[in-house]
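User: Structure tokens for both sequences below?

Assistant:
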Amino acid sequence: MKKYLGIDFGGTRMRSIVLDEEGTIYAEADDLTQAEDGQEIIVSRLLDFISKSLEGHEVSGIGIGTPGPIDFLTGTILFTPNIPLKNVPIKQLIEERTGLPVVVERDANAALIGEHWMGDAKGCRNVAMLIWGTGIGGAIIIENKIFRGRNDMAGELGHVIIDEDGPYCNMGHNGCLESFIGGKAIYERYKRSMREIAQGARIGNEDDLKIIAEIGKNLNVGLKNLITLFDPELILIDGGCSKDFDLFLDYVKDMPVKLSKFAAKAGVIGAARVAMPISR
């Protein structure tokens, strides 16, 4: 049975997986992205990571999920808000390095594809996903197909405006959801990480409980907008900040929301899936 390599390229870590068309996993690996190093070094590190992940495995193709926006047809990373990359022909670079066919997908799309293939979204015709990490990504499946929009930028749920007088974000907007509750924005605003705030809230720290309430109210607005626009059967939550999602359950009552089954693995599983001809 043919095997495929999936790569999840994130702002903090890069992950790889080798699996077959039935979802059997043969190998996994991960490494730090070190986004502060600049474009040339980051791309070189990614290519080296891919080469190492291929060692000892004969695969038929590679799929990579990357922050966007991207040009899906050419496999180019146009730019990334939280990693210093711009106009990177990543499909071409990986194909030149490996000699294998490559499919490039937005990381959030890849994560939802992974869940729709083998996870909690299996069997759902209309489903959405919110990736709550350093930034906020999103993806939407309508009638069993990824909804891309005109410029392959549909589903960027983190950049839905919830307060036009709010903070500026790297996408050129003011007051988007990411600028209020993305992990990076939380740290910049409160001078502590989401995990540190959550730990304080769990022991009853009043300041941290107030912060959780602020974050929860903004999360609620973002999810309500998503439900109103797309009426999904299910909304999956994934990403680093979702580790403390239980603190926000009061803010998602009566919403079709649950945590991703695969958590951090969803993106890399979906990346391998998009490399399979059967998925296209």
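Moving on to the next sequence.
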Amino acid sequence: MKKRMAIAAALALAPNSALAQEDDHKWSAGAIGFVNPSPFVGEKTEIRVFPYVSYSGDRVYLRGLEAGYKAIKPQRGAPGAQVSFDMMVRARPQPGSSRDGFSLDAGARFGVDTSIGTVALTALQEVSGKHDGLELELGLSRRFSGADWAITPSLSVAWQSRGLANYLWGVSAADRLDMVVSGTNALLPAFELDGSVVNANAGLVASYDLTARWSMVLLGRATWLGSNARENPWIDNRMDASVGLAVAYAF
């Protein structure tokens, strides 16, 4: 169960990592390693290394846990603000190492390239019948690049409905039973949040081209949990963070 959770946590950062060199190649494959401290009491920090595969076509893409269709593509080099519109499906894992649940979201992302960066609004609705949760996220990112490097910092605020909040930051009776059956070390007591949550996120992706096809990428993401999420007494860290390093070959 811990291995499945670590795989999910590692891939969760991948959609914004641009591991594939999209301007020249469609496929990218390599290895990705992550360090994932858990926000839950008694859970250990996970350190894992896994294979990585991504695809980026003219319209269709696959990156980590997200697959999508680029319905509107920004016109590179064109004057003025450029807009983009993506439709996607995304698998969503539960945080921490004691639970191994996945749900499937479907939604859309609308972006506008401005002088200060890309402003994006993402809406995701759970469609797999796990919790019927909804997430709305408003973010700002900006890419800085040179001949063989690129750095993209990002900030966002996400509202999560009560159903999604409990799936991520609560502990259901079914979760508790799965922990008992699997013999996990962190037996988290059941706890239900009584409302939606608002979290703040910060991310950073830094890439360096080792050769024309080989690249190295450093990824980091931190989520500052809102006060409603921290009502769960079995969350002892207000930040859920991940740091990773990837090496990929584009072809």
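User: Anything stand out in the second?

Assistant: The chain has three helices and 13 strands.
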